[in-house]
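seq as requested:
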Amino acid sequence: MNVLDHLKTHTVLEIKNYCKDSAIDAGVAMMHVSGDFNLSTLIRNANFFGYKQACYVGKKKWDRRGSVGTYHYTDLSHFTDEQSFVDYVKNENYNLIAVENNIPEYEHKTYDLYEEDLFYGIDKPMFIFGEEKDGLSGFMLDNSDLIITIQAYGSVRSLNVGTTSRIIMSNYRNYYDKL
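struct tokens:
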């Protein structure tokens, strides 16, 4: 059981309640159209950083092994299509924040992760990550309140989605904890 030592004797329901009680009002989501192993990492990261919920859009079936059971303790929602996900985000009053690189046509609403006060005024974020190969669709980018990018300094064009989710979640959690 990959849980904190003080939770090892607790039931699944007790651990889930512990996670709910300590979670911040933030969510993460990932496109899962062609199937991506990074979904397990995103769910595990959401649990590790104490996010309220994780979502995925597309295929229902996913490989749970990489999440080391965290899907038992973190609220997980599945959406069959982008429209139903966007409707949910709006109805729940989330700020939809896309995480994507290399999209000059959206420069007007794209911000570097390390810009000062990036998260100021964002009370309830839902970060959406694209699939490894295809990224996010124009529909998802159009419906996002803003887009965050992570500046590259080497020769590689982008980071692995699981790694990116960890960086984004950690940065927002750090910001939130300082409020």
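The chain has one domain: 5-177.
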